[in-house]
């Protein structure tokens, strides 16, 4: 299951975004003072392909892919200015796959009262600095342990060398994702779950008029910086999204069309997260269940079979594969087969996004 942590400064609408994604009703305005918990929730991944397959097969169950969201209490302004002063909740979300940083572009009475101006790039730098310090603390602890080892093996020496490079980069405020490491060096970082190696998505929470105009303060700067750093940017109006979530699917489509967008911000967020992480979906279909499976791009048919069940991978024979677009265009599996568009693939076939697969196996 894809997991992402929602981070940001107070009063930016983080928990509003969390509630929209998960359908939960977590407190918003009071959450910035909560010092004991983080919000955790799961959500179904919107997928029109699952909807269509459900109409074709009329199964007993429709199973969408799921994501998990973790919403961290807002970091305080200036918390990254003092080295080593970290937000304790960051450690709770270190295992997440991606980070979603919510930025405030809308006017806020509460923020104005607290004398907090709208400055998106300043807010990005504050939170990024906090992430850098959290990674630095982890690096320092690990290096200290390694250097105190009774026996410095060749492997330990290599790890010390790589982590020392990382420490030097962090001290220069260079994210580890931007550090030039060789293919032999990069595996040393994998199990540490450094924040600054994770995909980062900037969610700009706009006001209603800003969203309609597709413009907000510092838009050009934010997009330029994001492109340089390999981040994604999504514009969302939390207020409008809340209204959209209450509409029927048909009315929702009309509402979005009037705004000049095809999908809700939440749908766009999930899709961008999938792309950033190199994730794709394949489908299994039948009268009992139509199900979306999330896998990493580049998996073979046999490996994908293992996601369904280990016995299927162990006894894998062939995979019957149909492209979703072919089924969508023709309307039925019978017509797809008549056109010769159903294929039998071997164990080394690389699964593609949208593949409909029936695994043949014997155990």
Query: Mean of residue pLDDT?
Result: 89
CATH architecture of the largest domain: 3-Layer(aba) Sandwich
Helix content: 25-40%
In terms of DSSP E residues, the strand content is: 15-25%
Distance between the termini: 27 Å
- Compressed to H and E, one letter per element, the order equals EHEHEEEHHHEHHEHHHEEHHEHHEE
Strand order within the widest beta sheet: 2-4-1-5-6-7
CATH fold title of the largest domain? Rossmann fold
Number of helices: 14
In angstroms, what is the radius of gyration? 23 Å
Give a written overview of the molecule.
With 363 residues, this protein is of the alpha/beta class. It folds into three domains: 2-46 and 61-119 and 198-276, P-loop containing nucleotide triphosphate hydrolases (Rossmann fold); 131-196, DNA polymerase, domain 1 (Orthogonal Bundle), CATH 1.10.150; 298-361, Beta-grasp domain (Ubiquitin-like (UB roll)), CATH 3.10.20.30. 40% of the residues lie in helices and 20% in strands. The protein has 14 helices and twelve strands. A hairpin with a 4-residue loop joins strand 8 (279-284) and strand 9. Helix 4 (120-147) packs antiparallel against helix 5 (154-171). The longest helix is centred in the middle third of the chain and has 28 residues, at 120-147.
């Amino acid at each position: 299951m894809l997991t992402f942590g929602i981070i940001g400064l107070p009063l930016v609408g983080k928990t509003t975004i969390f509630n929209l994604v998960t359908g939960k009703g977590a407190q918003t305005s009071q959450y910035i003072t909560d010092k004991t918990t983080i919000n955790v929730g799961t959500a179904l991944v919107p997928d029109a392909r699952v909807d269509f397959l459900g109409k074709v097969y009329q199964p007993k169950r429709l199973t969408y892919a799921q994501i998990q969201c973790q919403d961290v209490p807002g970091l305080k302004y200036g918390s990254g200015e003092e080295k080593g002063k970290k937000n304790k909740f960051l450690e709770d979300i270190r295992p997440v796959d991606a980070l979603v940083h919510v930025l405030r572009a809308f006017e806020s009475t509460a923020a104005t009262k607290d004398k907090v101006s709208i400055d998106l790039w300043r807010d990005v730098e504050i939170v990024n600095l906090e992430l850098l310090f959290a990674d630095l603390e982890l690096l320092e602890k690990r290096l200290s342990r390694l250097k105190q080892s009774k026996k410095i093996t060749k492997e330990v020496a290599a790890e010390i060398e790589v982590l020392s490079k990382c420490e030097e980069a962090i001290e220069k405020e260079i994210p580890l994702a931007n550090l030039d490491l060789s293919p032999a060096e990069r595996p040393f970082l994998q199990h540490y779950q450094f924040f600054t190696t994770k995909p980062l998505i900037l969610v700009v929470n706009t006001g209603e008029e800003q969203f309609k105009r597709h413009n907000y303060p510092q838009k050009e700067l934010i997009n330029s910086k994001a492109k340089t750093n390999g981040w994604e940017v999504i514009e969302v109006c939390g207020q409008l999204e809340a209204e959209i979530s209450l509409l029927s699917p048909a009315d929702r489509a009309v509402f979005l069309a009037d705004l000049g967008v095809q999908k809700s911000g939440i749908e766009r967020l999930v899709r961008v997260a999938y792309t950033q992480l190199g994730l794709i979906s394949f489908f299994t279909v039948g009268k009992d269940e139509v199900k979306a499976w999330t896998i990493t791009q580049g998996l073979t048919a046999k490996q994908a079979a293992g996601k369904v069940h280990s016995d299927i991978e162990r006894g894998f024979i062939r995979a019957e594969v149909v492209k979703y677009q072919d089924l969508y265009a023709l309307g039925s599996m019978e017509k797809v087969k008549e056109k010769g568009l159903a294929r039998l693939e071997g164990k080394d076939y690389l699964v593609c996004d949208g593949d409909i697969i029936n695994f043949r196996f014997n155990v």
